[in-house]
């Protein structure tokens, strides 16, 4: 990544950080990634339980399960990627994402994948049986060896996991239109503008 692109990315992060100053948590998460609670019913409940268990935490780091698109579609194409792809890796500490507790991090320390806690606070890696980040993508060129990713070997061992597909089906989300409606309902429920 060029220095200019990295700099531009950080300007956006700082802008969002400023706009979100009134919220309890800040998350720098791409729209193609999903934090999925494994035990809690929703994200709000998950964060409440994490804060109760880890009182002195500045950030919660979510490990990443990659659903590798090179491994092919396993359900009929329905124009909704989490339903089409169900082959994933084990949870990895690769390009993790963080949910940061407001006022508990060093100013200017948030990047896309890292955060520096203020003195007296720490970072917690969220256990995968509590929550995990799901990401759908093709094998990256910088994964070494890339052939392991393409073949589903080594660190990229394949697991079949249709849990997100089942959750979406429980919500009657089967395509982008119903997903959009579900997102709007969630935004209204959370009171996010």
Automatic annotation (TrEMBL):
Pfam families: Glyco_transf_92
UniProt keyword annotation of Metal-binding present: no
E.C. no: 2.4.1.-
Keyword terms of this UniProt record: Glycosyltransferase, Membrane, Transferase
Compartments in which it is found: Membrane
Membrane keyword on record: yes
Any GO molecular function: glycosyltransferase activity
InterPro entries: Glyco_transf_92
Gene Ontology CC terms: membrane
Protein name (database record): Glycosyltransferase family 92 protein
Organism: Potamilus streckersoni
Organism phylogeny: Eukaryota, Metazoa, Spiralia, Lophotrochozoa, Mollusca
């Amino acid at each position: 990544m060029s220095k200019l692109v990295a700099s531009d990315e950080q300007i956006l992060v700082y802008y969002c950080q400023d706009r979100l100053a009134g919220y309890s948590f800040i998350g720098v998460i791409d729209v193609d990634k999903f934090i999925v609670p494994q035990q809690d019913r929703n994200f709000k409940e998950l964060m409440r339980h994490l804060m109760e268990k880890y009182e002195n935490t500045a950030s919660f780091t979510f490990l990443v399960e990659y659903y590798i698109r090179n491994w092919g579609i396993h359900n009929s194409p329905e124009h909704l990627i989490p339903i089409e792809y169900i082959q994933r890796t084990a949870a990895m500490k690769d390009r993790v994402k963080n949910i940061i507790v407001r006022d508990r991090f060093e100013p200017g320390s948030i990047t896309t994948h890292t955060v520096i806690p203020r003195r007296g606070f720490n970072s917690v890696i969220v256990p995968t049986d509590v929550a995990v980040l799901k990401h759908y993508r093709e094998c990256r060129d910088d994964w070494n060896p890339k052939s392991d990713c393409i073949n589903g070997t080594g660190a990229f061992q394949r697991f079949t996991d249709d849990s997100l597909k089942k959750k979406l089906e429980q919500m009657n989300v089967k395509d982008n239109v119903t997903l959009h409606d579900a997102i709007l309902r969630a935004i209204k429920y959370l009171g996010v503008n």
